Amino acid sequence: MNIDAIVNVLANVVYLIERKKISVDRAFTLTCRRVKCSTKEFTREDIYTLAHAFINNYYLVKHVVSRIRGDNYSYRMLARAFLYLKLPELGYSVDSKLKKAIKRDLPNLEQVLSDIEEPWIRLSYPKWMYEKLSKVLSREELEMMLRAMNKRNIWIRVNTLRIDVDKAIRELEREEVYVEQDKYIPFLLRVVKSRKPVRNLRLFREGYIVIQDRASVLTVMALRPEPQMLIYDVAAAPGIKTSLIMQLTENRARIIAMDLSIRRLMNMKKLLKKYGVDMDRVHIVLTDSRTVAFSRQADAALVDAPCSSSGAIPKDPAIKILLRNDRIPQRMSLIQVELLRNALRYADIVVFATCSLFPEEGEEVVMKVQSMDSRHRLVDAAIPASRGYRTYPIWHIVNRTYPHIDNCEGFFISRFES
C-alpha cells in the first residue's frame, strides 16, 4: 500500500484549503492536477472519500497531535495520524511503515485520543462555534445536530422540465442508485444507496436531475412562485434555485436574476440552458443587489443571502476550517440586512434565507429589518420544516432546518408579505 502517496494528497488538500480558502472539492481537484490521486489499492474516488473524511475530522486530529507534539507538526504528520486511526474502520490494515512512523512521531496517539473529553474536539468543530450555538440549543440537542452534520444526506431534485419523476426513479435504479421519495415534495429524492457518485451519472451530467439539498428546495417552496409572476432573485448564482422557480412554474415565471460576479453569472447561464430553462424569461443582471433600484415592483423576491455557510458543513467540511473566528456571522449579517431591506422596497412578497446555523444570520436579521419596515409583516412560510430558535420571540413564525431532525443542511427561512 502506497501510504506516502495518499499522505501527500491529504496534506496538499488541507494546505490549499487553509491557503486559498476554498472548498474540499476544489482543493482536491487542484491537488489532483499536480499529483497522482490513485494507487494500486485506492481509486481516485476512494482517496476523495478519505480527503473528505480527513477535513471533517481535522480539528480532532489537530488537537490530538498538538497534545503530543505542541506546535511541532506538519500537514503530512496530521495526515498520517488520520490514516492510522481511520484505515482500520474502512477495513484496511495499517502497514508496518505507517505504524513505525506513528510510534516514532506520535507515541500514545490512541491513548491521547481516548482521553479527550471536550465535545467540540470529539465532534471536530471550532470551540467558538460550539459555545455560540450552546446559547440557543441544549447541549444534548447541539451534540446531536453537530454529529449529524458530520455525515451528508444527498438529495436529488428531479428536473421535471426535462423528465418525469417515475421515469427518473426507474433510470436511477437501472444505475443501481436507490432513492427514497420525500413525503411532502414528490420530485425530491434522498439517495439511500448508490453504486457510484451521483455526479458521475448521465442523468446528472445532462441536467435531468440536480443535486440540491432539501433545505435549498424548501427555500424556493416558501416563495410559492406562480406562472406570470415577476420575481427578483437577488443573489442568484449559481442558479440552482432560479431553475427550480422555473420548474415549479413550468417555465412561465419571469425572473430578474442578479449577482455580483460576472464569472458566476456566465456559469449560471450555461447551467440554466442545460436544465431546460426558457432563457427568454430569465434576465441575468450583473449588479450589487444591496443598492440596485428598479422601476417596477415585483410580485416576489428571493433573498438567498451570502452567509457563513455554517449549515452547509455536511456538504463541505472545509467550512469548519474557514470559520476561524466568531466575528464572521456578525460581519455577514450586515450584508444580509442591506440585501433584505432593498428587496422589501421592490417586492410584495420576500423570502429571506441563509444557509447558516447562527441566529445573527437568521432571527436577528429578520427582527432588525422588521423594526425598520412598516409595509411588510412576517408570516408563516407554511413549509414542512422545523421552527426557529425558541430564545427569539419570532421562533414560531420562522423556519429552520436542523440536520438531525430534517435530514438536510441547516437553513434559516422566513417570509414577508405586504
SSE layout:
Layout: H1 3-20, H2 24-34, H3 44-56, H4 58-69, H5 75-86, H6 96-105, H7 109-114, H8 119-122, H9 127-133, H10 139-149, E1 155-158, H11 165-174, E2 177-181, E3 188-194, H12 202-205, E4 209-211, H13 214-223, E5 230-233, H14 240-248, E6 254-259, H15 262-274, E7 282-286, E8 298-304, H16 318-322, H17 328-346, E9 347-354, H18 363-370, E10 377-379, E11 386-387, E12 399-401, H19 403-406, E13 411-417
Parallel strand pairs: 5-6, 5-8, 6-7, 8-9
Antiparallel strand pairs: 1-3, 1-4, 2-3, 9-13, 10-13, 11-12, 12-13
Helix pairs in contact: 1-2, 1-3, 1-5, 4-5, 5-6, 17-18
- Poorly predicted runs of 5 or more residues: none
| Average pLDDT | 96
Q: Give the name of the CATH superfamily of the largest domain.
A: Vaccinia Virus protein VP39
What is the CATH C-level name of the largest domain? Answer: Alpha Beta
| Beta strands, count | 13
Number of helices: 19
* CATH topology assignment of the largest domain: Rossmann fold
Q: What structural class do the secondary elements suggest? A: alpha/beta
Count structural domains: 3
Q: What's the overall geometry? A: globular
Q: Share of helix among residues?
A: 40-55%
Compute the CA-based radius of gyration.
Answer: 23 Å
